[in-house]
Amino acid sequence: MARPREVSRVIRSRVSIARVTPLINDLTCEDVYKCRRARQALVAMGGGAVPYLVDALKFRKGWVRWEAAKALGQIPGPAATRALVDALGDRTFDVRWLAAEGLIPRGSEGLVVLMEALIGKSDLGWFREGAHHVLFDLSQGYLGDKVKPVLEALEDVDASVVVPLKAKTVLDLLEET
């Protein structure tokens, strides 16, 4: 089985760097229409664009991170899901919001990755805030009974201590089903 870094290299090789680089550069939104077309083109590339969008999530300019999160939310697959979970900890509220909105429709797939991340990142306030958004929306649907304990833990004053335990319990339940 290939390691994630090797898989990433294989995926990147399927999408031409020469084709992707100008699109990522257009995400700066100096021209709004060009920016939107660039995001749409990256989404159309699907999984092949994900490694480049993950890199774009590290840009200093918040607008580029916003566009990358928006695009990742429209691309299915585990790599995009992991990137969206990581983006829940972004310093910019709008990026966290878009990451959460991209995760919510993924249901159980996104929830598993989120629970794994909460076990290790529950001490990060911005990450907890982004996770709360996802879990609140999921609590309104069929996953409600499973996520409510973690949602309540996120609202606790000792969230960084309580959340990992609750997240592990939910993760165990999800893996059983």
Fold topology:
Blueprint: H1 4-14, H2 17-26, H3 32-45, H4 50-56, H5 62-73, H6 78-87, H7 93-103, H8 108-121, H9 125-138, H10 144-154, H11 159-176
Helix pairs in contact: 2-3, 3-5, 4-5, 5-7, 6-7, 6-8, 7-9, 8-9, 8-11, 9-10, 10-11
Give a short overview:
The chain has helices at residues 4-14, 17-26, 32-45, 50-56, 62-73, 78-87, 93-103, 108-121, 125-138, 144-154, 159-176. With 177 residues, the chain is mainly alpha-helical.
Q: What labels would you give this structure?
A:
177 residues; mainly alpha; Leucine-rich Repeat Variant; 2 domains; 11 helices; 75% helix; elongated
DSSP E strands, number: 0
Which stretches of 5+ consecutive residues score pLDDT under 50?
1-13
- Main β-sheet description: none
Domain tally: 2
Percent helix? over 70%
Distance between the termini: 25 Å
Query: Mean of residue pLDDT?
Result: 89
| Number of helical stretches of at least 4 residues | 11
Structure description:
This protein has eleven helices and no strands. It has 177 residues and is an all-alpha fold. The protein has two domains: 1-90, Leucine-rich Repeat Variant; 107-177, no CATH class.
